């Protein structure tokens, strides 16, 4: 598949929220941009499947979710990294912006679902995604940006400027398996 | 102030999402309901101030935030517990529903900002708020409900059916103090 330029895509949010310094650090054969309405066909779910169960919901349901997220004002910011050679997605991650009453109607950015395809790991793509999402979060006025990670990933996130805070506790809905995140 | 019945209030979401079994467990002088558009005047920010910095933003800004949250479709569910004697808020907590692509367009409920006023602690109000929010989250189709807590609160949340998962990492925006949550 030939590479599709941003101008030919219907994006989740405006491209200029992604900081130039992150774009500059990417290998030249890769491109970082907002999720687009046609990224189902570029392997978005396949990349997410490195994290947890990600059944193929089909293009129509995927697109419907895309439009639901986009219609939620200034809340969901999901990025993808695309190979210019194949037009396929090799990495993704998102941040959503929570609005609070405390901290002077403060906002908190929650980074979620950072995934890099198996063949592209070790190229610091996860780091670039985190840097871009943290920038977007702070630019949106968040007083803090948080993420949850396994013990083995703590040193990586500390290098990204994050510090340990609290414990994440989870309760699974009845009848749904406890599937650890990898 | 005389107690204001739900029917006289403009609520954040429909009252019948709060499970009856939680209402039944509350002391009779207390009432649990969705946040209302006039709860600025019932001490909502004062209760939140037990958690962290909660400056008084004024009634107009508070109400504007209320309407922003309500206009975000099926995302923010904030509860309050009100004293029938004083019509003042004595406890609050919220869950917001995140929509994902993985897990078959799965949803995760994030419980945030559980606060009980100092004079009302020890009455299991936090537990009742958690039970109601978890019910709302699961009823909204979330495959899991998560929260972040300090080590000292882990036994409490384990009793609520939650299990330890990951570490929360946080990055504070430049120029904003690192204020630990109490």
UniProtKB/TrEMBL annotation, chains A, B:
The keyword Repressor does not apply. It comes from Multifurca ochricompacta. It holds the Pfam family Acetyltransf_1. It catalyses: D-glucosamine 6-phosphate + acetyl-CoA = N-acetyl-D-glucosamine 6-phosphate + CoA + H(+). Keywords: Acyltransferase, Endoplasmic reticulum, Membrane, Transferase. It is found in: Endomembrane system; Endoplasmic reticulum membrane. It comes from the Eukaryota. Pathway: Nucleotide-sugar biosynthesis; UDP-N-acetyl-alpha-D-glucosamine biosynthesis; N-acetyl-alpha-D-glucosamine 1-phosphate from alpha-D-glucosamine 6-phosphate (route I): step 1/2. This is Glucosamine 6-phosphate N-acetyltransferase.
């Amino acid at each position: 598949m030939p590479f599709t330029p941003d101008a030919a895509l219907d994006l989740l949010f405006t491209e200029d929220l992604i900081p130039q310094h992150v774009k500059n650090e990417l290998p030249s054969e890769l491109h970082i941009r907002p999720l687009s309405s046609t990224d189902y066909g570029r392997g978005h779910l396949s990349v997410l499947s490195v994290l947890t169960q990600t059944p193929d919901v089909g293009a129509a349901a995927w697109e419907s979710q895309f439009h639901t997220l986009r219609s939620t004002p200034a809340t969901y910011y999901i990025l993808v990294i695309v190979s210019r050679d194949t037009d396929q997605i090799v990495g993704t991650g998102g941040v959503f912006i929570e609005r609070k009453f405390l901290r002077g109607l403060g906002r908190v950015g929650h980074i979620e679902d950072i995934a890099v395809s198996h063949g592209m790991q070790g190229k610091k793509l996860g780091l670039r995604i985190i840097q871009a999402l943290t920038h977007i979060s702070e630019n949106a006025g968040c007083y803090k940006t948080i993420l949850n990670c396994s013990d083995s990933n703590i040193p990586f996130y500390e290098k990204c400027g994050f510090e340990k805070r609290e414990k994440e506790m989870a309760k699974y809905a009845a009848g749904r398996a406890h599937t650890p995140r990898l």
